[in-house]
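Problem 12. The chain below contains 405 residues. Write out its predicted structure in token notation.
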Amino acid sequence: MDKLDSIMAMHAAQGWDTNDKLLGVSFMVVDEKDVLYEGSAGRIGHHHETAKYTPDTFTYVASLTKLPTAICLLQLVERGQVSLDEDLRPRIPFLSEVQILRGFDENDQPILEDNHRPITLWHLLTHTSGLTYDIPSEPLMKWRQAVGRHKNNLTWTEEGFSTPLLFEPGTQWLYGTGIDWAGQLLEQVTGQTLEQYMRANIFGVLGMRDSGFRPKLLADQEERAARTASFSFRSLGGALEAGPSPLPNDHPLESGGAGLFTTARDYAKLLQAVLQGKLLSKEGMNLLFRPQLDEGLQKDLMEKLASAPEGYAPEYPIGMPANFALGGMLNMEDIPGKRKAGSMMWSGMANSHWWIDPSIGVAGVFVVTLLPYADHFAANLYSKLETAVYEDLVAGRPVGGSKTS
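Solution.
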């Protein structure tokens, strides 16, 4: 554990020197029964005398939201309230109306075509629906300009999420906003908001008291504010700068893909519950981890990974075979010195990461509050920490370590 502590300390800002450092970081590792490691380094704000970053630091985790949202939808599948392969267009008006953006004419006006294919929950969870993020998609940013659309995905509004498809559902893999629409499906099916449902079926069950989509509505506001992390922004020169939060102050929708605020400690409880098989049936857990993409879609995924090696999966060796499950991305081979084949992972816009290795029953979460995404220094630290975990904490563990394996 001293090794993990020292690795983090070396990468955290000291005083005013933030060059090539992280302002603050927290890292936790769990197995089915215990917390194997918890540690932090750095601070929550830019002034060098602000509070320390800890596992209880409250922060925005962006796309780490996708895992609990996927679990919630699979709970509905298990109850028979929705199926993975039913056409959702009759349930969600936007999905019945959304068109496919085929390009632009000579006047830079969008060429749109009606979609005649079903859009299913499977498409939404596997990022094969044709929906994607409008930032940094050049076609969607051009479309927004052409139609006078001012609200983007990060406004967490129906208008902001209502963008055209870029291809027919099921024909390509492209990371996007499908899980946000899956969250809207959950609200339509249950009659609850996404937060209300998660509080009853995940947060409350696991004692995740520091998790939610609307921080102002959580209890103990003053106490939590004193341990809330500020955003830091990496300059081109490598130093960290202060800046305003990119998030909306108020928003009508709760983003199932990127709306969660939490702590490393709370998120570690979620990962441990997955290892325990506590939130889904055995079949549901198998489904959460099962590779979903056929050969053609897997090839498309691999091409996307190759085009942005420091983006989607900086922890994967270049060319590592990957697939996508309903809960996240899978490495299909062992990563030398690190996680085993079949491990699932994802990351978020603010450079936080998680992974679950079901074969030996271990999981970890790495939390920072840093923009822009794909920060090299955050990815480098995360890689060193994972290596140390497999060298020191879980070396020699037998395969078959959790209820998900």
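Discussion. DSSP finds 13 helices and 14 strands in the chain. Students who got a different answer should revisit the alignment rule from Section 12.3.
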